[in-house]
Amino acid sequence: MTKKRHTDKAIELSHQVMLYIIKHPEAVKDVPSDASFVVFSSEDKAFNRSNEGFLESVVAEGKPVVKVEQTKSKKEPWKFIPLTI
Amino acid sequence: MSKRAKFRKHKAKPRLLDFDKRTVKSSQLHTTKVATRVFPLSTTGRISYVYRLDKTATVVEVISVSYQISSRNQWLTVIYYDSTHGNLHRHITASIQNPQTSVSTTGIDQEKTPHQWLTWAIDDIKDKHLQYRADFLERSNPIGV
Fold first, then answer.
1. Touching check for A68 and chain B: CB below 8 Å?
2. Beta strands B45-53 and A65-70: pairing type?
């Protein structure tokens, strides 16, 4: 996957997550306010593979990180998994 | 009355911060909280959202919505939005060498709530980040990249 495609996909997903967080602030009530969110798609396996390595580099920075997984549930389309707090 | 007694009687009023009255008043600051959400996009790009929420979790101020790129191990802000002073506006960084920003309100509907402004800023960066990045790099001295 090219870097451009990865970035475009990341922006598209982070856009959706951010709109969800604004509408459902309770979904991240236990997440530290300065956490980094790394978003994974429910369908794009190539993007997710590319993102796994990137996730490790974000975790290595030492700040709180939350893995955000897209689900296929309409009620809870995003799952927030704190990796480091 | 002694001088000491005279001064003890008069308690200083809370100093009003330099906010436009349409934004958060100083008396409300202790009932609001600031949320920061950072989305790393790649090793060289990230978007961060910093906004203030009231007790009902409603957005009352856009503190900073920014798109940053990494160059030579430092993060550079290409563009950011804020609604300080009661209006949403964007700050566009001149170049890598010149951190000064130019302020613009082009295309921004001011007749919206802070919640709508935040959503609008999110949409704007999603739609135009490539253009903002390209313009920023074009303004920058290529030798410095």
1. no
2. unpaired
